Amino acid sequence: MSTTQMMKGILDGCILAIIKNKEVYGYELAEKLEDYGFSNFSEGTIYPLLLRMQKEKLVTSTLKKSTAGPKRKYYRLTENGEQELQNFIERWEILQTNVNHVLAHETKKGKGV
Amino acid sequence: MSTTQMMKGILDGCILAIIKNKEVYGYELAEKLEDYGFSNFSEGTIYPLLLRMQKEKLVTSTLKKSTAGPKRKYYRLTENGEQELQNFIERWEILQTNVNHVLAHETKKGKGV
DNA sequence: CTCCTTTATCTTGTATTGCAAGGTATATGG
DNA sequence: CCATATACCTTGCAATACAAGATAAAGGAG
Fold first, then answer.
1. CATH for the B3-107 domain, from 3.30.460.10, 1.10.10.10, 1.10.10.650, 3.90.950.10
2. Tell me: the pLDDT tens digits for B75-107?
3. Any coiled-coil ranges, and where (chains A, B) (predicted)?
């Protein structure tokens, strides 16, 4: 059991949520996720994931010049992506409900963290 | 993105939580998890997971006769298992906080489910 | 007794996905 | 030309959920 495993299938949703608000590029996205508290994850995670999401038509990308390096690839949500984000939110809420229900089963015995 | 992927590393914690309260056997555990709302998962998920947890010394097992079939293997938490359950709860709370923070970023735009 | 159903466990193989490690490309400054 | 920072990509590995199928024990029908 590790934090790694708990991220499976959840990072996707978080990325969709961030992109929805405004165009972002990969490097920037990684920084934002760190700000949100998702630590210890590398570019080896984020770039393959973005490419996968583009292949699934959840996002589109546009190259734009940067002032300080190679071109940035900005991502934007497609309609499919918005739908998928909504699906993720619903699944996440159900998951939270179920897991918290199971844990309440345990913490009711008195183990306030 | 699927429900399957979102379960990674989370099922472990839920199982530990259920076992903590009272000895249960695999088949029974599967039924309980379904009651808690975890649908669509099979014995091919639960038995390998229980064996893995036993190998990691998180649980111990005892065989007991059943009135209606082969022997049942009852599982019980070890001290390591209790510790791991506490670790899981902490990780789960952090994950919830982070993901909900990201989603608030999105839902603030007005999309009440 | 033999066959079938229900209960209960285990094994094998596959797909998904997070991540470390390492590689490539562009702009600026010495 | 070379070093550094920014930015992106590829390869290979490890963890794990699950479908499909095998095994085993007990009770009832014929």
1. 1.10.10.10
2. 999 999 999 999 999 999 999 999 999 999 766
3. none
